[in-house]
Amino acid sequence: MVQKPIIIGVTGGSGSGKTTVSQRIYESVAGHSVAMIQQDAYYKHSDLPIEKRRQINFDHPLSFDTDRLLADLQKLSDRQAVDVPIYDYKLRNPSAETRHQEPKDVVIIEGILILDDERLRDLMDIKVYVDTDDDIRLLRRVERDIHERGRSVENVFAQYLKTVKPMYHQFIEPTKRYADVIIPEGGENSVAIDLLVTKVRSVLKHEG
Ligand SMILES: Nc1ncnc2c1ncn2[C@@H]1O[C@H](COP(=O)(O)OP(=O)(O)O)[C@@H](O)[C@H]1O
Ligand SMILES: O=c1ccn([C@@H]2O[C@H](COP(=O)(O)O)[C@@H](O)[C@H]2O)c(=O)[nH]1
């Protein structure tokens, strides 16, 4: 067991391959315990009716309960357990349940706006930006939102043009400058992922 967990932030636009890259890192650090935390779990609760919740800008930093995410990450960094919220994409609200997370050697925090907040950035040992062309990300998002998040094609297009695309350019893409590593083309870039995994293993060896 390492003294202090190594915290890895993985960001990029929606559909860039953040989850895939995080999964690859997760699978590669065998022998060490790993926790995966998603920023999406920390969307704020809204009392608005569902018709109004459909209009929420989910790509703006203020849509997240960043103080809670920060507190949880700080606790995991201090080797304390946390109760991570669970988000319901169909209801567009956090569910009533939480997920208990014990402290681990490696903590992967993944999400579109994790590098936007300086306090979060300061907790991270390695910051990764997954860089994938906008058109590829949009195609992936259409497929995912329809099949996994219960959305209509009209809804996906309207949301993309109204908030997802402008917020990406205003808030997400500018955080690339804070990344230690930029991975082009997401989850199948095995060279970049192998380099990253080598770095993670070397930090763990040094700490352990
Ligand atoms: N390099 C890649 N080539 C092809 N498909 C990919 C690649 N990276 C990710 N995907 C696929 O694209 C979709 C979105 O990837 P995901 O990792 O969930 O993105 P994000 O978490 O950034 O929204 C998934 O279906 C995933 O399997
Ligand atoms: O209720 C919701 C909450 C979030 N979204 C969208 O999710 C993406 C972030 O998730 P990725 O896995 O990185 O794609 C963000 O762009 C939000 O627009 C949503 O549509 N509805």
From TrEMBL:
GO terms for biological process: CTP salvage; UMP salvage. It is found in: Cytoplasm. Pfam families: PRK. Its main location: cytoplasm. GO terms for molecular function: ATP binding; cytidine kinase activity; uridine kinase activity. Signal peptide: none annotated. Its EC number is 2.7.1.48. It catalyses: cytidine + ATP = CMP + ADP + H(+); uridine + ATP = UMP + ADP + H(+). Pathway: Pyrimidine metabolism; CTP biosynthesis via salvage pathway; CTP from cytidine: step 1/3; Pyrimidine metabolism; UMP biosynthesis via salvage pathway; UMP from uridine: step 1/1. Residues 7-191 form the Phosphoribulokinase/uridine kinase domain. Transmembrane segments: none annotated. Keywords: ATP-binding, Cytoplasm, Kinase, Nucleotide-binding, Transferase. ATP binds at residues 12-19. One of its GO terms (cellular component) is cytoplasm. Belongs to the uridine kinase family. This is Uridine kinase. It comes from Lapidilactobacillus dextrinicus DSM 20335.
